[in-house]
Structure formats: structure tokens, C-alpha cells
TrEMBL record:
Protein known as: histidine kinase
EC number assigned by the record: 2.7.13.3
PROSITE patterns xrefs: HIS_KIN (PS50109)
Region annotated Disordered, chain positions: 1-27
GO molecular function term, any single one: phosphorelay sensor kinase activity
Origin species: Candidatus Woykebacteria bacterium GWA1_44_8
Catalysed reactions listed for this entry: ATP + protein L-histidine = ADP + protein N-phospho-L-histidine
Enzyme class, spelled out: transferase
Residues in Histidine kinase domain copies: 66-288
Keywords, comma-separated and alphabetical: Kinase, Membrane, Phosphoprotein, Transferase, Two-component regulatory system
UniProt cross-references to Gene3D superfamilies, sorted A to Z: 1.10.287.130, Histidine kinase-like ATPase, C-terminal domain
PANTHER family: HISTIDINE KINASE 1 (PTHR43711:SF1), TWO-COMPONENT HISTIDINE KINASE (PTHR43711)
Domain of life: Bacteria
């Protein structure tokens, strides 16, 4: 179109000039439409590369498992000996030495937790996690025991840890007691770690044949851009704005997610506001529900019989 004179008076299309195919045209055609031989060759190379990656991944998992086993025993011995010294079994310990040994003990316990998490990861990746399913667990009683055990530690941090009792008795859930306890401990200790003042509250509710357990804190909260990283393996918020959230291995929530999902539930961040606090929740199927029966069947099909335990 001519900006001054308006549209052209003719609607005829310009004549295209024909020319013979060049070598570049042929190369482009071969790249877009490879020959059967080239396709088979590329497929073989891709299959070989994929197999190699699987072998490397398996070797990595085996190394983590072996290394974790080898590290756990000596660290347990170190922890035991330090604890004996601090308790006075080896004689009186002066204040300065006690402070040093206490710091060492805290560091060793942190390393033991990391080793245990690595072992859990290797078992999860290998699909050989041992689930001792109990069809009638009272999740509020599990939480009550945890609150009782952590009240003293919370008080030392000037925190209050409390249980919000449900208005009516909760239905029993089907779950592995130890693994559910581990998930709850992880959520509560995370809340304590990132809460400088205020409280941590455990609450419950029922929804769609599931019991939902929530842990709410009055801590530093999580910025919006960091939330998607929470349940990924070895991922953790790293922004300076989240302070101590950068600490840790980045495995606890990932392991918790795998444990809860394998038992027929889900785990998620309900809400979080920087400077206000966070609420994490997880769900577990009620005793005798359709999901509970489905989980028993699924676990039996996925794991070797010797790894399956069901408490009736």
C-alpha cells in the first residue's frame, strides 16, 4: 500500500522466479526429513546415552547408600562418647571444655541427620522403603507426644508449642507411625528453626475421607518467589531475605513429600507471608477408606513381599 496514493489498482500477485534446487536446499530437506538409516542411527545413539545416564544415576545412588552407611557408625560412636563425657562419666568437665564439646555434639548430630536423610533418599530412589502400615493411628496422639517432647526445647527459645484439639474426636488414619512422626517432627522443628518469637500450633481437620494436619508458626515466612523450591530434592530458598531459611540440606521436605504421597496423602504449603508466618499441611487417608485400601494394594505391588508389613 502507498501511504499517499492509497491501495494499488491491481490485485495481481508478483510472479515468482523458479530455480533449480541447490545443495543447501537438499541439506535442509535431509535435516528435516532424515533417511531411515540416519533415523535408526540417531535412535541407537540416544538409547545408548540414556542407558549410560541410568547407569551413572544408579552408581550415584549406590555410592550415597554405601558412603552413608560407612559414615553413620563412626559418627554414632563420636556422639555417644561426647555424651558420656558431658554427663560426667569420664570425670569433671570445666565450663570452657563443656561449651566446646556441646558445639561438637551439635555438629555431629547435624551430620547424623544429614546421613540419615541421604540413606532415606537412596531407599526412596530405589523404591525399597519399608512401610509398616497401621490401619488405626490417632494422628492427634502422635502430635501430642511430639509437643510434650519438644516443649522444653521450645521454652529455651522463648517459643510456645501447642496443640489445637479438634472439636470432636478425629477418625483414625492408616499410616506408618514412624514415618508420620518423622514428617511431623520435620515440620515442627523447621517452624522452630525459623521462628524467633511467638508460637507453633498443630491443628487438625477432616476433608474427603482424609485427616489433615497443619503446623502453623509465627516465623519469618517465605517470599512468593521461593515457594516453588520447597519440596524439591536438594533445593532450598537462598535469598538473603529469608535469613536462616538457607540453612539445612534441602532434603527434609522432599523426603516428607515422598513419605506422605506413598501413604495416599499429600503435603503442601497452605499459606505463608514474610514477617507473619507459615502454615504447612499434610493429609492421610482415614481407616477403611477407598484410598487406604488402594494404598495397601499399591505398596504390595511396588515393593518386594519381604519389605511389606501391614499391622492389623
Amino acid at each position: 500500500m502507498d501511504a499517499k496514493n492509497g491501495p494499488p489498482t491491481s490485485n495481481k500477485l508478483p510472479k515468482l522466479e523458479s530455480r533449480p534446487l541447490s545443495s543447501s536446499d537438499v541439506g535442509f530437506h535431509q535435516a528435516v526429513h532424515p533417511s531411515p538409516e540416519a533415523y535408526q542411527k540417531a535412535l541407537r545413539e540416544l538409547t545408548a546415552a540414556n542407558l549410560r545416564l541410568r547407569q551413572l544415576d544408579k552408581a550415584k545412588d549406590e555410592f550415597i547408600s554405601v558412603a552413608s552407611h560407612e559414615l553413620r557408625n563412626p559418627m554414632a560412636i563420636i556422639k555417644g562418647n561426647i555424651s558420656m563425657i558431658l554427663s560426667g562419666d569420664a570425670g569433671d568437665v570445666n565450663h570452657e571444655t563443656r561449651d566446646i564439646l556441646t558445639d561438637v555434639l551439635v555438629a555431629v548430630e547435624r551430620q547424623i541427620r544429614l546421613v540419615n536423610e541421604l540413606l532415606d533418599i537412596s531407599r526412596i530412589e530405589a523404591g525399597v522403603i519399608n512401610f509398616n502400615l497401621n490401619p488405626a493411628i490417632s494422628i492427634d496422639q502422635v502430635a501430642e507426644l511430639l509437643v510434650t517432647s519438644l516443649k522444653g526445647v521450645a521454652a529455651e527459645q522463648n517459643l510456645e508449642i501447642k496443640l489445637e484439639n479438634p472439636a470432636k474426636p478425629l477418625p483414625a488414619v492408616q499410616a506408618d507411625h514412624d514415618k508420620v512422626s518423622q514428617v511431623l517432627i520435620n515440620l515442627v522443628t523447621n517452624a522452630m528453626k525459623f521462628t524467633k518469637k511467638g508460637s507453633i500450633t498443630i491443628s487438625f481437620k477432616e476433608k474427603s475421607e482424609h485427616v489433615i494436619t497443619c503446623v502453623t508458626d509465627t516465623g519469618i515466612g517465605i517470599p512468593e518467589g521461593q515457594k516453588e523450591m520447597l519440596f524439591k530434592k536438594f533445593s532450598k530458598p537462598s535469598s538473603e531475605s529469608v535469613g536462616t531459611l538457607s540453612a539445612g540440606s534441602g532434603l527434609g521436605l522432599y523426603i516428607s513429600k515422598k513419605y506422605i504421597e506413598r501413604q495416599g496423602g499429600d503435603i503442601w504449603l497452605e499459606e505463608s507471608k514474610p514477617g507473619v508466618g507459615s502454615t504447612f499441611c499434610f493429609s492421610l487417608p482415614m481407616r477403611g477408606s477407598e484410598k487406604a485400601l488402594e494404598v495397601v494394594s499399591e505398596i504390595k505391588s511396588l515393593q518386594p513381599i519381604k519389605e511389606i508389613h501391614y499391622k492389623s
